[in-house]
Write a structure and sequence with these properties.
11 helices; about 425 residues; 6-stranded mixed beta sheet; alpha/beta; single chain; binds guanosine-5'-diphosphate
Amino acid sequence: MSNLLAIVGRPNVGKSTLFNRILRQRTAIVDDRPGATRDRHYGTTDWDGKTFTIVDTGGYVPDSNDIFERAIREQAQIAIEEAHAVVFVVDALDGVTPLDEELARILRRSNKKVFLVVNKIDNAQRESSVGQFYPLGFGEPLSISALGGRNIGDFLDAVTSGFSKNGESEDEHDEKLKIAIVGKPNVGKSSIVNALLGRKRNIVTDIPGTTRDSIDTILRYYGEDIILIDTAGLRRRSKIKENVEFYSVLRSLKSIERCDVALLVVDIAEGLDKHDLRVLEEIVMRQKGAILVANKWDLVEKDELTAKAYEGRIKRLLRIYDFVPVVFTSALEKKRIQKLIELAREVNGERKKRIPTAKLNETLRKVIEAKPPASVRGKEIRINYVTQVKVAPPVVAFFSNEPKLIEEKYRRFLEKKVRESFGFRGVPIVLSFRKKN
Ligand code: GDP
Ligand code: GDP
């Protein structure tokens, strides 16, 4: 079960301030990641050993005033259906407004956990304004200041209380390979799934509450059962473009959470944009295998050099994620569609690979001797021992006298060297630096 938290509320109550506050810790680290920009609306973080994803519904706001309130109501509905818990934000300075009451009615009807959060309680004096929100019907509200950070720790304790700790996922014992197919609308996800299955299958749902978690299809592949987790097949009917986007983002995040390997599909004619990079970042953050599928290859005019040129361009865009393999497919002409499954199996194998300690040390000792970490403030930094401590996802531990002083640049260098010698194609690996003299 993935931990997905949606923030809902009418405009200007402080949703995006709260969102940024929750992700702040992380944003500082990931600034040079490809997808990092200020206008993000979802992100993954952790609290007390629980990784969770938060989505700011306020990020999906239509331009038009006529559909504004309708869009917000519908977003609340989608959040109820898709998220595991809902944070309902109200504004202490404004008190209870009619739109708050309406959102409360929608949220009360659900059986999802709803946390009522009274924001803008910037100081103790303002606590007295919390009482007016009791009638909304969610028990004792949490009072916070998203701007100032007041009570944010208590807030995070509360909202994550029902989430599972990392590594306690229910699906983990299932041996079958699970492949998620994600990407923006119209890039060809359904067509790829249909081509894989050799038949058409189209499921549209427009009745609230009837959506299933996602459609899992079993693909028989040379006697092996492979599960396709397919966000493509499920579509929500809505006249509101922003809500379709919001819905598809939530679905993708949930599919990614459950998979071993994710196929991120893009339309080669449109290329890779920041939304795609963000989805890729989510895949990497969750340490799932990743494959970039550049679909509609049939539309590209090409000679024998075209694929290499495109691949080079895409790899440059991927930057620190350039370990992700790129496949050019045509769902229309059924080109390289089977290859996706072969590659997904390969990536899954890499994810479970264990490098013998002797081999790791032999290789990396040479690398480190040739280019040791730079000493910091006159302190010599030694790395004495390397071992892979975990598989799926792979974690490689480096034991050092000064693990904290090893710079990001050097960590990246080591990752590159690990990959050069040991592959891990398509697999995010974690380098863990630990203390040992
Ligand atoms: P959203 O539309 O719900 O996402 O609201 P924003 O996060 O954009 O915030 C709306 C306004 O409220 C901004 O001017 C924020 O600076 C302000 N705001 C947000 N949180 C707080 C808070 O805790 N205290 C005070 N005083 N202002 C806040
Ligand atoms: P989804 O929204 O990502 O599931 O995309 P669909 O599978 O519904 O495809 C969107 C459109 O792109 C449809 O009109 C497809 O026929 C078309 N399409 C899908 N794959 C290809 C392809 O490989 N080549 C071309 N030329 N069109 C494609």
